[in-house]
Every structure is written in structure tokens, then in C-alpha cells.
């Protein structure tokens, strides 16, 4: 059993499933092409019935089933299967939908010119031959292969215990790459990839990323992600996805059927119709989308769940010296070059021998013409042809071949012009012999000849690249499947987090009670609310001065009443560490900065790009002094004034250039000094055309011009910003324009949304107007703003009456 199975396995590996590294052909392909060549079934002759070709191959070289031979010939004539077709078919040879070809009695076939390049010079003893199955004929062990067929057309086969799967490449690129290698033997894979960047599939498509290509070219193994080409058409009444190219070896009909199944099972939503509009002009699959859908999201789902994105696993396995071996790119090129060196050497020796034999004959003929009278006399004096031949050999110092040629010479050769033709032929052949001797003198000359032939073939058969190659990641990330919509993110004091669709809240007038925005546990309350987009990065800064990264779409989406998810399940927080500042970031720029502020008024400025590399365990953002905590972080451009506000209503304005630029994990400097038990509440940028909005815990607020805050140096006490009651305190203060809106949230989870222009403008030492009615045990804990673009579709409610509670002097004037 062991011996029999090993013999069977080697027979499959060597004689059936794995291509030869030299000509890139399996035995059945080689035998089919050679049989067509022997039949004279070339591109410049009439087509021959496929059945006749199959019978010729089966009867002379390949005694197996006729279907396997016909399938081989059919595939060589399919433009979606072979990058460089080797057979020219006439009739129905199947389709990319998987339709079977017509029976062999109905179709016709002949060789393509490219296939003839593989067979050229085979009659010049360039390759070895072996007996066929019944030893009645000789068949080639390998073809001369002027073109590097293995790289151009690739190969696909499953043997016993091993398999090969080699991708096709562009003809012109392969020829240029090998030419470059011949001229630069020390060339690296990276050098060759500048000329031949990667596979080029007959069906086009897009290769996502170059890592798999580099791996295959270096090691012989690699994995490519190939996508079809699909465009989003928004010109009609309905948006459409139009697919014009598919990944290699993907069946179009099965793909359409599978997409329809996914739509029917509601695994992909938003597709109203799918149809195949392909014709002789090319492929066209049209997918109609429903109104209100996100075309890119649906396309990403198609990439994720269908063969519109496929994986091509590369295994560069081929036969060398009757043994299977895996090759990198340079190994494949070197094996082809070595094969061509042998072929050209044997061809040149053959041509040189034939030329020398002909020159030898010509010299004899010319010698006879020069002594024609004596030659004729000698022949006339001889009784027989053999006697004449012997007389010529003896009398004129000729050999038998020359004497035979003289006896066979026609009388017209005696004319002067005919003699000149013989002289010209002799001189031309002598020049050929000298060239061949020079060619055979060194291997470098042979390599130059290979390069010349490849340049010629590349320009003759090369065409434009069909497959695009991108340097993008091959993976569809989670964000590619999620719409980038605007949401409201809520974070509670106990670090529960969620996001809610921003349209869940309608605009209300100032002074309303709001709607329920979140249900909290006992002794918990909402601490931060802000607007972000689902694809944004959230940079989460904690009370301990650390930074963590979080994507908005990783936060659970909840209803208005949902409590959310504990942020410790999303971030790797330390014990007793709380998130105190969350900033949405679309990109990390070196010319923008994070300005940090601690509870005791310490501040530090760090470039954004120092946080551009997310780590799951977080990083140290700043170093804190004992008993201090990070409370606020803002984004600046390095040329702005900032304003700090404390709980008891003090504010300090200064320019940020007073804060030196530091690296991550540095210790800050004093930003603002405070008295008694006062603590920092907010930090905002002073912006021209905007006013400072201050909101208190009791639901009061006002807008104040920044001009009322004269600039002080960093590290001073500042001036009075707002009067607060005994049980009141500032929640936050930040710059807003006239046309923006704000959202307030209370500790009990109530939310109200109102326009900024309904809040009156007042001086520094006033209490402001009531914005939100607060219960006796409730207080405002979070405020965020909405730009006009963010709120343009929301309903406008008339401004409510200003409620003026009068001054409250319970807090001493600290100015």
C-alpha cells in the first residue's frame, strides 16, 4: 500500500497537477499545444474542429478522457481565465457566469501567436524529447518558451499532499522585469516590484494592500485580498451601485444569486433591486438602492459578506528537476532565465552547425563553378554517377557531400548572377556563424540575447494593466459598516457612558423642564454631554492624568432612558480612576494642541500628535501633584487666549503663549490661583465674535462679552464672572456664537435644548436668567453646544420670558 500510494502521489505531482517551472505548463497543456503545432493548427491557418484536436491529443500523446483534454483547451481560450490566452476559439466557449461550453463537435480552435512563441525553435533540438505512452512517437519534455508563461498565466492545481496557486501577471511588466534582472543580476524584489508591482488578473479588480504581494515574492507564500470594482451612481432618481469588475475566478451569476439571498434574509438592507446588464461591451451589475440608505455602507457590506471581496492565497509551487519546490519571484525568474540559456545555447549550436554545413556545400559549388570545364570533363569521362562522385572527390579535393551537391547542381547555376547569389549566401552564412560563435562565447552574450527577445515580445504582446493595486489595508473595519452620524454622548459621574441619536431631542424654549435623557442609579448623575460623530476617536482623559482611546461606535447606543454601559468595560482603567474629560478627535495634528487644566489650577500644553498612537492600556498624559486631579482639556492652535472659570464664579484670561510647550507626561505650571476651597470648573478659548456663556448648577445662565475680562498674567486670581448663591456654583463657561444651541442635562437625567440667542447678554457681576427649571434636589451637571449645521433641521420654539431672580450677594465679591 505504501509503495503504491507513493508512486501514485508522485505521478499526480509530476505528471498531472503541478506545472513545470520552465515553461509553466502541466503535461496536458504541453501535449495539447504540441499536437496543435504538429497539425499546423497555427494562428495564420484556418480553424480546426475542437473534436479533431482532442482526438489528435488523445490518440498520440494523452490517453485519458476526452473531456479533460477539451476542458484544458477551452480554458486556454477563455479571456476571463487566462491573462494571455494560448488558444483562439470560435464558437461557444462558456461564460464567466459558469455556463458550460458547447460540445467539441460544435466549436473550432487554433493556436494564438503567443502560444506559438512557446513552441518556436522546438524543431532545432532546443529541448529534450521522450517516447509517448506507446513509444510510437516522441513528445517534448518541456517547451522552449520564449515567453515566461508561468508568471504571465499563473497556475492552479491540487496534487497529493500539496497544491499550487499562482496568480497571473501583466505580459509587458513581466518581460520588463526579467529584462531588468538580466541587466542587473543583483536586483532585489523591491527593485523588481517597481516594474512589476503585483499580479494582474484577467478580470481586473483591485488588490488591497501590498503585504501579501511582498510575502509571495519573497517566500513563495502570500495572501491577497481582491475586490471587484464598484461605483456609486447618484445621477438618477435613485442611487445605484454599479459593479464593472469582479475578483478573479468569481462566478458572476452565483454572486448575484447570493446577494439576492442576503437581501431576502435581511442580512443586507437597503437594496430594492439587482439585475445583470452585462453585454458584449463589458460587465455591468446594477444594484438599485432604497431612498435614505447609505450607499457606501451597503457597498461595504457587500465587500464583507459576498465574493465581491475575495482572498487569493498564493502558493508558488512548481516542478524543478522532477521535484516540487516553492519559489519566490527571483527564483522563478532565474529558473526561466536558466531555461532560456539552455534553449538559446542549443538553438545557436544547431543553427551554427546547419550554417557550417551549408557553407561547406557552397564552397564546393563555387569551387566547381570556378573549374567548370574540368568538372564537366571529369563527369563526362565517368561511366556511372558513383564513379563521377569518386572522381570529383579525388581530383578536386572535395568530400562526398560536396561532390553530391555538384552532381545535383543545375546548369542555371553557371550563370554569373547565379554564382553571385551563391557567393552572397556564403558570405551571409559566414557572418551568421561569426555572430553565433560570438553569442556562444560567453553567458553574458546569451543573457543579452534573452533580454532582446523579451523586449521584443513585451512590446508585441504587452497591454495595459487591468488590476489596480492600492496600499490601503485589506480589512473592512467596523467603522466601514456603520454610518458616520451625529450623536449625543453622555457620561455619568460613576462613568456610565452611552450615545443617543441627536434627533431624539426636539428644540424647546428656554425655561422648559426638558425631557428624560438618561436613567441613573442612586447617587449617580450625568456629568458630561457632548456632540460627536460615530467615526470620531474619543480621547478620554482621567482624573489621574492618563489618556485612553475609544471609538464612538464602540460605545453602546441607548434610548433616552437607558443608563448606558460602565466605561470600565470599554477602557482599561486603574482602580479609583475616573474619566473627567472626553474630547472627540477626527485626526491628530502636530500643529494643534491639548491644553490641560487641573482642579487646583495647574496647566500644561502638549501637541496632539503625541497621542496619535492608540494603546489599549492607555498612556500617561500629564504628571499631577499630590491631591490634584485633571478636570478639563481643550484643543487650541497655539495662538489663542484662554479663560479659566472656577466654581465660585472667578475667571482669569491670559494668552496661551504664557504656557510653554511640553511633551507627554510632563509636570504643569500654575494657570490660576484660588482661594479657600474654590476649584476650577472650566477652560475655554476666547474667540472673536462670540460671547462667554456661563451656566450655574441652579439652572441660571447669561452671556457676557469677553471685553469685560481684562487680561491678567498667568498665576493670578482673576476677576468676578458671575454671582452664585450659597447652594449654587458654576457648572461650566465657554464661548458660543449667536446662532448656536445648547443642551443642558441635570443630575436626575432631564435634558433641555434651547437656542443661545434666547439667553440675554449681561455684565460680569450679575446672576443671569433662568434657563432650566431645577427641582430642589436636582442640579445642572452637563452642558454642550450645537452648531447651526448640527441643528439646522430642528424645530424653532419662541423665546420664553426672562425670569430675573435679582442679585444674590451670598458670595463675597472677590474682585
UniProtKB/TrEMBL annotation:
Query: Where's it mainly located?
Result: cytoplasm
Among CDD domains, the record links this protein to:
TOP4c
**Which Gene3D superfamilies is this protein grouped with?**
3.30.1360.40, DNA gyrase/topoisomerase IV, subunit A, C-terminal, Topoisomerase II, domain 5, Topoisomerase, domain 3
**In the record, what terms sit under GO molecular function?**
ATP binding; DNA binding; DNA topoisomerase type II (double strand cut, ATP-hydrolyzing) activity
Q: Other comments?
A: Few gyrases are as efficient as E.coli at forming negative supercoils. Not all organisms have 2 type II topoisomerases; in organisms with a single type II topoisomerase this enzyme also has to decatenate newly replicated chromosomes.
Q: Which family does it belong to?
A: Belongs to the type II topoisomerase GyrA/ParC subunit family.
Q: What is this protein called?
A: DNA gyrase subunit A
Amino acid at each position: 500500500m505504501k509503495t503504491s500510494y507513493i508512486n501514485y502521489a508522485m505521478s499526480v505531482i509530476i505528471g498531472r497537477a503541478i506545472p513545470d517551472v520552465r515553461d509553466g505548463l502541466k503535461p496536458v497543456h504541453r501535449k495539447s499545444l504540441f499536437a496543435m503545432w504538429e497539425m499546423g493548427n497555427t494562428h495564420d491557418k484556418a480553424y480546426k474542429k475542437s473534436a479533431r484536436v482532442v482526438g489528435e491529443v488523445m490518440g498520440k500523446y494523452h490517453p485519458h478522457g476526452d473531456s479533460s483534454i477539451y476542458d484544458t483547451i477551452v480554458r486556454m481560450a477563455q479571456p476571463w481565465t487566462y491573462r494571455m490566452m494560448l488558444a483562439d476559439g470560435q464558437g461557444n466557449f462558456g461564460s464567466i457566469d459558469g455556463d458550460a461550453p458547447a460540445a467539441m463537435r460544435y466549436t473550432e480552435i487554433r493556436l494564438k501567436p503567443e502560444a506559438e512563441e512557446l513552441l518556436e525553435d522546438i524543431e532545432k533540438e532546443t529541448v529534450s524529447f521522450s517516447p509517448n505512452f506507446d513509444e510510437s512517437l516522441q513528445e517534448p519534455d518541456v517547451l522552449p518558451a520564449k515567453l515566461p508563461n508561468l508568471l504571465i498565466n499563473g497556475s492552479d492545481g491540487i496534487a497529493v499532499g500539496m497544491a499550487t496557486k499562482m496568480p497571473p501577471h501583466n505580459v509587458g511588466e513581466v518581460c520588463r522585469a526579467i529584462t531588468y534582472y538580466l541587466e542587473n543580476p543583483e536586483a532585489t524584489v523591491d527593485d523588481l516590484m517597481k516594474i512589476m508591482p503585483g499580479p494582474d488578473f484577467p478580470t481586473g479588480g483591485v488588490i488591497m494592500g501590498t503585504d501579501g504581494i511582498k510575502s509571495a515574492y519573497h517566500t513563495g507564500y502570500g495572501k491577497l485580498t481582491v475586490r471587484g470594482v464598484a461605483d456609486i451612481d447618484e445621477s438618477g432618481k435613485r442611487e445605484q451601485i454599479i459593479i464593472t469588475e469582479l475578483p478573479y475566478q468569481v462566478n458572476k451569476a452565483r454572486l448575484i444569486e447570493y446577494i439576492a439571498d442576503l437581501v431576502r434574509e435581511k442580512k443586507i438592507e437597503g437594496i430594492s433591486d439587482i439585475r445583470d446588464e452585462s453585454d458584449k461591451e463589458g460587465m455591468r451589475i446594477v444594484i438599485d438602492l432604497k431612498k435614505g440608505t447609505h450607499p457606501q455602507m451597503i457597498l461595504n457590506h457587500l465587500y464583507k459578506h459576498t465574493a465581491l471581496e475575495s482572498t487569493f492565497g498564493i502558493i508558488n509551487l512548481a516542478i524543478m528537476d522532477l521535484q516540487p519546490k516553492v519559489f519566490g519571484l527571483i527564483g522563478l525568474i532565474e529558473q526561466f532565465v536558466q531555461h532560456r540559456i539552455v534553449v538559446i545555447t542549443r538553438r545557436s549550436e544547431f543553427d551554427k552547425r546547419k550554417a557550417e554545413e551549408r557553407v561547406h556545400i557552397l564552397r564546393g559549388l563555387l569551387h566547381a563553378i570556378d573549374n567548370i570545364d574540368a568538372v564537366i570533363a571529369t563527369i563526362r569521362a565517368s561511366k556511372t554517377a558513383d564513379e563521377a562522385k569518386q572522381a570529383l572527390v579525388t581530383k578536386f579535393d572535395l568530400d562526398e557531400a560536396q561532390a553530391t551537391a555538384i552532381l545535383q547542381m543545375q546548369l542555371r547555376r553557371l550563370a554569373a548572377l547565379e554564382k553571385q547569389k551563391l557567393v552572397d549566401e556564403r558570405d551571409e552564412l559566414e557572418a551568421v556563424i561569426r555572430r553565433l560563435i560570438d553569442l556562444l562565447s560567453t553567458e553574458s552574450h546569451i543573457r543579452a540575447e534573452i533580454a532582446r527577445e523579451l523586449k521584443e515580445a513585451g512590446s508585441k504582446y504587452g497591454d495595459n494593466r487591468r488590476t489596480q493595486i492600492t496600499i490601503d489595508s485589506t480589512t473592512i473595519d467596523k467603522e466601514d459598516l456603520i454610518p458616520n452620524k451625529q450623536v449625543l454622548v453622555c457620561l455619568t459621574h460613576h462613568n456610565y457612558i452611552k450615545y443617543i441619536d441627536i434627533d431624539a431631542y426636539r428644540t424647546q424654549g428656554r425655561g422648559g423642564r426638558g425631557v428624560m435623557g438618561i436613567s441613573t442609579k442612586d447617587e449617580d448623575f450625568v456629568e458630561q454631554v457632548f456632540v460627536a460623530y460615530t467615526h470620531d476617536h474619543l480621547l478620554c482623559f482621567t482624573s489621574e492624568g492618563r489618556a485612553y482611546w475609544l471609538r464612538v461606535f464602540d460605545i453602546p447606543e441607548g434610548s433616552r432612558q437607558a443608563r448606558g454601559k460602565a466605561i470600565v468595560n470599554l477602557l482599561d482603567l486603574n482602580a479609583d480612576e475616573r474619566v473627567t474629560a472626553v474630547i472627540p478627535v477626527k485626526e491628530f495634528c502636530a500643529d494643534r494642541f491639548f491644553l490641560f487644566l487641573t482642579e487646583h489650577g495647574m496647566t500644561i500644553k502638549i501637541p496632539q500628535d503625541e497621542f496619535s498612537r492608540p494603546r489599549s492600556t492607555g498612556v500617561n498624559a500629564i504628571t499631577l501633584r499630590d491631591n490634584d486631579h485633571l478636570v478639563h482639556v481643550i484643543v487650541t492652535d497655539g495662538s489663542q487666549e484662554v479663560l479659566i472659570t472656577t466654581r465660585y464664579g472667578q475667571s482669569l484670561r491670559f494668552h496661551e503663549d504664557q504656557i510653554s510647550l511640553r511633551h507627554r507626561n510632563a509636570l504643569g505650571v500654575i494657570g490660576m490661583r484660588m482661594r479657600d476651597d474654590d476649584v476650577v470648573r472650566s477652560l475655554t478659548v476666547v474667540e472673536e465674535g462670540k460671547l462667554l456663556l456661563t451656566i450655574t448648577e441652579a439652572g441660571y445662565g447669561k452671556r457676557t462679552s469677553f471685553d469685560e475680562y481684562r487680561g491678567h498674567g498667568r498665576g493670578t486670581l482673576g476677576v468676578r464672572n458671575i454671582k452664585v448663591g450659597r447652594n449654587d456654583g458654576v457648572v461650566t463657561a465657554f464661548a458660543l456664537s449667536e446662532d448656536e444651541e445648547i443642551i443642558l442635562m441635570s443630575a436626575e437625567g432631564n435634558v433641555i435644548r434651547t437656542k443661545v440667542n434666547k439667553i440675554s447678554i449681561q455684565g460680569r457681576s450679575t446672576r443671569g436668567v433662568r434657563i432650566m427649571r431645577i427641582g430642589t434636589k436636582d442640579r445642572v451637571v452637563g452642558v454642550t453646544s450645537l452648531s447651526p449645521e448640527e441643528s439646522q433641521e430642528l424645530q424653532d420654539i419662541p423665546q420664553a420670558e426672562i425670569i430675573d431672580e435679582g442679585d444674590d450677594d451670598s458670595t463675597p465679591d472677590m474682585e
